[in-house]
Design brief:
Keywords: Chromophore, FAD, Flavoprotein, Lyase. Its cofactor is (6R)-5,10-methylene-5,6,7,8-tetrahydrofolate; FAD. It holds the Pfam family DNA_photolyase. One of its GO terms (molecular function) is FAD binding. InterPro entries: Crypto/Photolyase_FAD-like_sf, Crypto/Photolyase_N_sf, Cryptochr/Photolyase_FAD-bd, Cryptochrome/DNA_photolyase_1, DNA_photolyase_1_CS_C, DNA_photolyase_N, Rossmann-like_a/b/a_fold. The longest helix is centred in the middle third of the chain and has 19 residues. The chain folds into three domains: 127 residues, Rossmann fold (3-Layer(aba) Sandwich), CATH 3.40.50.620; 97 residues, Alpha Horseshoe (Serine Threonine Protein Phosphatase 5, Tetratricopeptide repeat); 154 residues, DNA Cyclobutane Dipyrimidine Photolyase, subunit A, domain 3 (Orthogonal Bundle), CATH 1.10.579.10. Helix 4 packs parallel to helix 5. The protein contains 19 helices and five strands. It is globular and about 75 Å long. By secondary structure, it is an alpha/beta fold. A five-stranded parallel beta sheet has the order 3-2-1-4-5, sandwiched between helices.
Length: 426
């Protein structure tokens, strides 16, 4: 049996500008493209109507059809990664498994498990940097400790940036595919078709050039909507950074925030379940379950908050400014643990990313690195006046006849939050 290599797709669902894939195809051996529908992840999803799973499935179909023109296709397996590799090792003579690195604690544990198993079979496991410009300890202080404040991190990031060119790879280096022209269906893995329509992401010059002017106004819909593409790697971060350097520094800073939170998660995995600033664990949260359900359903009586939650529940998206307002409201006005809100967003957001979701929720609650101070409490009415002056966004998601009395009075809630935080941090 001839030796082959495997390229394992994960958060990099594209053929172009894919670092690990490029190395695999230049390795000198034929390459089998692999994707694993990981039951360790899928089994935790409560709703079988999940647009994210559908997005991944459609992206895989797109890759598969493109590869068919090269007499190959993507090999898709459904199960636990270790069990999949156990079978592959039995069936194939594998030299090396190539993939791009992931930085979430669970992914690191998974990859270590796969590495150890392959090593026992004398198979190499090669990982590459792809979903970020700088990883791990690429950007650190002079004493080699990680940055925990964004501004100096961003400054160092920009100073160190060197443009990297990636050549088009020769797709004929893939091994010939003898399977079906149809890939595994959503129904076969226990999910339903949704209204998600996958399109290869594109960079919109006009939108990005005006990004700094209009990004805070939810009714204008002037954010890039590229979060899901970056989450699943259907667009390379290098393409985004290159475009941002040419067209808009504000958007570049947002891309740097993404990497800042990723390196925080990598260096401080405790943030997955705990406050970055440990003294904030002393906060006595009210955690009223009825009020939490009211917030989730968009019935708090604060129009900008309710509009945002209804947009999230209906579409899987929420405008970034509104995400900050709704998160501040939950943690400050209702004094509900930020972890409850983070988990709810994780279950709903199409662009859910552990590092960004965790970092932003801890920012809103005041307990994260470089977070807003605890006494910064958004006034939802003032936020609406400033960013949705004509109530266009509110009317879109919240008909006037559905607006309710506020669940709590703003001034009373603010004073209660300040008192609670102050006592906890004393």
């Amino acid at each position: 049996m001839n030796k082959i290599n495997i390229f394992w797709f994960r958060r990099d669902l594209r053929l172009e500008d894919n670092t690990g894939l490029q190395h695999a195809l230049n390795s000198g051996l034929k390459v089998i493209p692999l994707f694993i529908l990981d039951t360790d992840i899928l089994d935790k999803l409560e709703d079988d109507y999940d647009r994210r799973v559908d997005y991944i499935h459609q992206a895989l179909q797109d890759i598969h059809m493109e590869l068919r023109s090269f007499r190959t296709g993507i090999h898709i397996h459904h199960g636990r990664p270790l069990e999949v590799f156990k079978k592959l090792v039995q069936d194939l003579e594998i030299d090396t498994v190539f993939c791009n690195r992931d930085y979430e604690p669970g992914a690191i544990r998974r990859d270590q498990e796969i590495h150890d198993f392959l090593q026992c079979h004398h198979i190499k496991f090669q990982q590459y940097k792809d979903q970020v410009i700088f990883e791990k300890s690429d950007i650190v202080k002079s004493d080699f400790s990680p940055y925990t404040v964004f501004t100096p991190y961003s400054k160092k990031w920009k100073e160190k940036l060197i443009k990297t060119e990636f050549k088009t790879v020769d797709l004929t280096h893939f091994a010939e595919f003898h399977g079906s022209s149809e890939i595994i269906s959503l129904e076969e893995i226990g999910f339903k078709k949704t209204d998600m329509q996958f399109k290869k992401p594109k960079l919109n010059k006009a939108l990005i050039e005006s990004y700094h002017l209009y990004r805070d106004f939810p009714a204008m819909n002037c954010t890039t909507h590229l979060g899901i593409a970056l989450r699943f790697g259907t667009l390379s971060v290098r393409a985004c950074v290159d475009y941002a350097l040419k067209h808009n520094e504000t958007w570049l800073n947002e891309l740097i925030w993404r990497e800042f939170f990723m390196q925080i998660l990598y260096h401080f995995p405790k943030v997955v379940t705990g406050c970055f600033k440990e003294k904030y664990e002393n906060i006595v949260w009210r955690n009223n379950e009825k009020e939490f359900r009211v917030w989730c359903s968009g019935n708090t009586g604060y129009p900008i908050v309710d509009a945002g939650m209804r947009e999230l529940n209906e579409t899987g998206f929420m405008h970034n400014r509104v995400r900050m307002i709704t998160a501040s409201f939950l943690t400050k006005h209702l004094l509900i643990d930020w972890r409850w809100g983070e988990a709810y967003f994780a279950s709903k957001l199409l662009d859910y990313d552990l590092a960004a979701n965790n970092g932003n929720w801890q920012w809103a609650a005041g307990c994260g690195c470089d977070a807003a101070p605890y006494f910064r409490i958004f006034n939802p009415y003032e936020q609406a006046k400033k960013f949705d002056k004509e109530s266009e966004y509110i009317r879109k998601w919240l008909p006037e006849d559905e607006q309710k009395l506020p669940i709590v009075e703003h001034r009373e809630a603010r004073e209660r939050a300040l008192k609670t935080y102050k006592e906890a941090l004393a």
